[in-house]
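The passage that follows is intended for readers who have already worked through the single-chain material. We present the inputs for a multi-component assembly, then the predicted structure in tokenized form, and finally a short commentary. You are encouraged to pause after the input and sketch how you expect the pieces to fit together before reading on.
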Amino acid sequence: MPELPEAETIVKYLRPKIRGKRVLKLWSNTPRLFRQGKNLHKISILIKGKTILDTTRVGKNIVLALNNQYNLYIHLMMTGKLLWNYSKLRERHIRFSMELNGKNTLALHDIRKFGWIRLIKKENFSDARVNKDALSISFEDFKNSLNLRKMKIKNALLNQKIVQGIGNIYSDEILWYAGIEPLRPANSLNSKKIKRIYSAMKKVLKMAIRKGGTSMRDYRKPNGKKGGYYPIRRVYQREGEKCARDGAIIKRIKIGGRSAHFCPYHQT
DNA sequence: ACTATCCCCTGACGGC
DNA sequence: TGCCGTCAGGGGATAG
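Having made your guess, compare it with the prediction:
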């Protein structure tokens, strides 16, 4: 499940490879990919012949900046992978590919077709959006946003309108480090507790980036290698195991249709 | 403003 | 062997 650290890992890998490359040809067999009434033809007209200036990330979105007024946004959702110079003979589930000069190809592999690709005008790439990224958001903005919500803190961390980049794995991990129970209403947390969550958020995401992300089922780096966070995770998918902090048995509950894992002893 | 629920899609897995 | 139900989970839509 690509979340912020996985997107960051992909961006770091791709950035030097595709900087300055020109887009020669686009291919796709999945109309749904483009959403909002767009299609491959409409996208092609605006991209073909353009140069990719840079590769960045906002939340879980991967952003290719073109040398015109557009950015190409890619969201991998749950099973999406970007493949660099993949082998056509080996891969199933390729939904989109982009030929670049120098005989290079960037392809989207996505088993469940939940991922999407959109062209977004640079003028709509607002600071407000960038400033909600989990690694950029200020403590004041984070705290003020949580103070306004009575939703459960687990859901608040997953809500991309509040903070961008956290998914189910890292929300569990962040709350474990912060010692906060996932069911707690966001607006019931005092400044001190929000500070703990804020610090844990930065710590967990940076640690996961250093490890190259979490490979559980589908996620791989564009070179096909696995990320290294999964073995060092503290709670996610550890129901019934002992908490690394205090030895209590880790519980798993459902919150809003998603699984949440936590230590019932130190997360309060 | 927020909650609850469904849907999109495919593959893995357990029960029989 | 294979059929069926369930689960994985981000985000959009919709009803309440």
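Commentary: Residues 1, 3, 35, 60, 75-79, 112, 114, 116, 158, 160, 167-168, 216-217, 257-259 of chain A lie near DNA strand C (CB under 10 Å from a C1'). The helical segments of chain A are 4-18, 40-47, 127-130, 139-147, 153-158, 168-178, 191-211. How closely did your sketch match?
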